[in-house]
């Protein structure tokens, strides 16, 4: 059961790491655009919050498109685990009757 669990974890970890990498790239791009004055700096001291919000808004659709296969693989592994858990629960329930 050990290798199967680590394979399941690796799909989620891989997707999360790639998602964070896409966000980091968007953050760096937005920060550079704000620094060079191509994008506005926000209001007062809100520069960091502005950059983070823009990076989140940009990274979400990019991740949705670019990470589709990783998201599907993670989803399949989650569905498989849920189905096994349901089957185990049902088997335990019928044994008690």
Task: Provide structural commentary.
InterPro entries: DUF4229. Keywords: Membrane, Transmembrane, Transmembrane helix. It holds the Pfam family DUF4229. This is Membrane protein. The structure is a single chain. The chain has one domain. About 85% of the residues lie in helices and about 0% in strands. With about 100 residues, the chain is mostly helical. The mean pLDDT is about 85. It starts with a helix and ends with a helix. It has helices spanning about 1-35, 45-65, 70-95. It has three helices and no strands. The relative contact order is 0.13. Helix 1 (about 1-35) crosses helix 2 (about 45-65).
**Separation of termini?**
28 Å
Q: Fraction of residues in helices? A: over 70%
The backbone outline, from C-alpha atoms, is elongated
Radius of gyration: 21 Å
Series of secondary-structure elements, N-terminal to C-terminal: HHH
- Average pLDDT score: 87
Protein name: Membrane protein
Keywords: Membrane, Transmembrane, Transmembrane helix
Organism: Streptomyces inusitatus
Transmembrane segments: 17-36, 48-67
Q: What would you say about this model in short?
A:
86% of the residues lie in helices and 0% in strands. The protein is built from 3 helices and no strands. This is Membrane protein.
């Amino acid at each position: 059961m050990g290798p199967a669990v680590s394979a399941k974890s690796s799909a989620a970890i891989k997707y999360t790491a790639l998602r964070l990498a896409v966000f980091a790239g968007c953050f760096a791009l937005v920060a550079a655009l704000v620094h060079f004055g191509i994008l506005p700096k926000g209001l007062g001291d809100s520069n960091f919050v502005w950059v983070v919000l823009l990076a989140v808004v940009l990274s979400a659709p990019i991740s949705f498109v670019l990470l589709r296969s990783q998201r599907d693989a993670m989803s399949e592994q989650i569905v498989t685990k849920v189905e096994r858990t349901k089957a185990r629960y049902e088997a335990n329930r019928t044994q008690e009757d």
